[in-house]
Amino acid sequence: MSTIFGIPTPALYGQILIGLINGSFYAMLSLGLAVIFGLLRVINFTHGAQYMLGAFAAYLLLTYAGISYWPSLVLAPLLVGAVAIVIERFMLRRLYGLDPLYGLLLTFGLALIFEGAFRHWFGAAGKPYAPPAQLTGALNLGFMFMPIYRGWVVAASLFVCLGTWLLIEKTRLGAYLRAATENATLVQAFGVNVPLLLTLTYGLGAALAALAGVLAAPIYQVSPLMGSNLIIVVFAVVVVGGMGSILGAIVTGYVLGVLEGLTKVFYPEASSIVIFVIMAIVLLVRPAGLFGREE
Amino acid sequence: MAVGTQYLAEQPRLRTTSFVLGGVALAALLAAPFFFYPIFLMSILCFALFACAFNLLIGYVGLLSFGHAAFFGGAAYFTAHAVKVWGWEPLSGILLGAAGAAGMGLIIGFLAIRRQGIYFAMITLALSQMFAFICLQAPFTHGEDGIQGVPRGHLLGIIDLNQPHAMYYLTLAIFLFGLFAIWRIVNSPFGNILKAIRENERRAISLGYRVDRYKLGAFVMSAALAGLAGGTKAIVFQFATLTDVQWQMSGEVILMTLLGGIGTMIGPIVGAGLVIALQNYLASSQFPVTVLIGIIFVICVLLFRRGIVGEILEFMKRKPKGTA
User: Fold this and answer.
1) What is the pTM of this model?
2) What GO cellular component is one of the record's annotations (chain A) (predicted)?
């Protein structure tokens, strides 16, 4: 059996794959955070809860309505996005123009409500969610066996990230969005409905989190607390990448995921803190983040 | 955000009123263990000091730390370890906890003050989460079990702290000392520069103040006082666990301060009392506490951002003009 630095290569590739999968979720979630923050100037602490809601929506749709994975992939983000739109309309909207810390505190409170309620109803234990039949089994890549579902998650997340990036950089709607990020008043003066744009942006960000949740459901178990620990890591990812750039958020997410996977191979004790350590180093060397600009 | 103390200083009549109120409160605190369950009171005092320490940072420097649990829970571990394993005397154990928290504050603060506003909150949260992971794995914290069965021992080798009233008065003394320290810090020239930084950081820089050093100084003081509260809690409850270092605890102290009134001297105490009483009351019911805490958060942020005490002060400020 071949080895690299004394580590058998299949174990190494396996951990890189796990790192890529974690990185896919980091990328999708930090992308949503960056899109929301760019326009609304709100750090969406509910993002982790919205990810959890997406996974739960898929689980509940399957258990109580018999709706399978593929329709859930569309339905769950729509449901969670709709809830997010209500939140933006009736709560977040009142806080625009105030200290952005209030937005953080409001979304933190909402996250506690969602997580507390789901924990009350469903308990803290994880619920299994089987991957769809088309994506079960494993593929022999020659150098390793790859479970098909995991490959699908990496591909799907790349597709979603690329799609969102294209939407923002290449479409007319994206151009409005970028313009409103620079100067909302001016864009409104040109006749663009900025309040609607804000609502849709928050809905889109939450829907992205929910989509990540559905993708995650078959890999990690569906549990009320699946989002809260993840969101703190994603915050660290966002600090490392800087929220100035969409592409920066995506790249940082994947890279940190793989680095975390590699740490699991070479120094497993540090794998849960490696991203925070990287964050500390980046803060020392380049406080604005790798892709950020000084404000 | 903060109007409490300056306002009191400007109003002589209110100042006498607040001295009278303070005297009454002190008498009530001294008499309280004869009417209420001492552990419950001590828990309120520990959390009230914790919230006041947190408020020193958000209320007077304008920095929202989302990682204060690390100092509170970290100090609880340090104190518990010193007292149980090394056999230290309880008060020196508590002081060691506070010193340890100050050291952690120096490291976390040094990193976090490199960014402002919302990033500051995310960085403190991430670093405290890292500390929580370390606590989960480090041998001396005993992982999920925590450090249990910490002996209360004898204060300075003389007073037996297993007597509930002795423990209560020690806790009260530490609480009052912490409160006095915060009051001194806030009303010192140093405290005034902190407020200047809160109001307009760029102007403070242009006046020649080394803003970063002031922020770091305030951060370390806040961490040390939070540690004082955490160390005391370890002796009161005789254990230190992961609960106290996790992000939920950081959220709880934010809620106490927000509910009572950010930037007011007594707001955090009121907030801590309410939240602890509520948790105590709900502990026997079916209603999930987390949901209620979330609901209070949302209501506070949407409806009364000044907090209970802040709103009362604002109301009094508007009224006396006509009546005086």
Assistant:
1) 0.88
2) plasma membrane
